[in-house]
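go over my protein:
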Amino acid sequence: MSGILLICVFAVLLITGIPVAICLGISSLVVILQMDLPIITLAINSQAALSKAVLMAIPFFILGGNIMDTSGISRKLIDLASACVGHIKGGLIVVCVLVACFFAAISGSGPATVAALGTIIIPAMVSCGYNKETATGLTATAGGIGLIIPPSISYVVIAPLAGISTGDLFIAGVLPGLTMGLALIIAGIWLNRKNKNITVLPRVGWGSRWKALKQAFWGLMMPVIILGGIYGGIFTATEAAAVSAVYGLIVGVFIYKKMGWKEIKDVCILSAKQTAVVMLIIMCANLFSYALTVTGACTAASNFLLSFVGDSKFLFLIIVNIIFLIAGCLIDGNSAYYIFVPILLPVALSLNIDPIHLCVVLVMNIAIGLITPPVGANLYTACGITGLPFSRVAKGCVPFLIASLIALMVVTYVPQISLLLL
């Protein structure tokens, strides 16, 4: 009964439009009071949720990404990619996705990737004959790669829930992220195969390419340092986050010279606000997860799911994708992880599904959720950049949504893509 009450209160609050974090917290509080548990339980669980050392990586990765964004690295990455492939037909599609992959490895955020790239790449694509809806849809969808390619805040959040190494999860996300990028490139080129209005950028010489590489070099080195340090055992994921913030500050102040005291102050304030939002969600989601456990709803749901799927990995993974695709439409990723991972993980382990592979699949689903309404953070970011109405941006995303779903299915049923580099 308490479990049903928990779900009902959460659903009612969510329907009324109350922020998800508040819905999670209030519904958890109602159940804790209904079960006559000590009210201090709230404080204990809130403190436990935020005192995990691995979560220290979140503010540092957010800070590092904001610093590199302020430094103008997105412009340099686009110049480099354009110099290399801009002269081929469909080259700007490749440029958009490649830069999204690189910037994803710097910011770790989908909306941040869209915001940083959209103001530059969308006007460039439109001026070369691409449909504005298509260009906006591609950029919004490619921004989701920010959740899949490491470093990603999603991996920092989900790793301790699944009891796995954040560093291993970072490495596992590389090939799935590139798989989704390849799917978007193929979809974009196919979609524009009959577009006679497309003009290509002029071919540039190797001297210009070398100059563009030198300009973008310091930005490109950030993911190399982070992943190389983790994979080489030099530092942990949390330490890598701190290194990324310090490295980004050095690059922004002393190398690109785009940041003074005012910019540093603004970046720190912005990062603090973003960190506070993420931490509030984690705290409230952890309370909800605790409430699911003490009411027995978590165990009951796991047992029901196991009895339903039997020993079929195929059926279980289909259900996982359906659950998380729906969840991605309604709530943010961090909340979804805390709600569903405790339910899905025991079933996955009983079916001998690698938890690292499972977590990568879950994160890919949430990345797709960034372009599915009504939450669709990337959609709203793209609307703000281009001024297009929500319906037109959503329409432009449809072909790339289909491509993303195909990539999701490939990664889901070919676990070697996630596990190959481990």
Remarks:
- The CA atoms of residues 116 and 208 lie 23 Å apart.
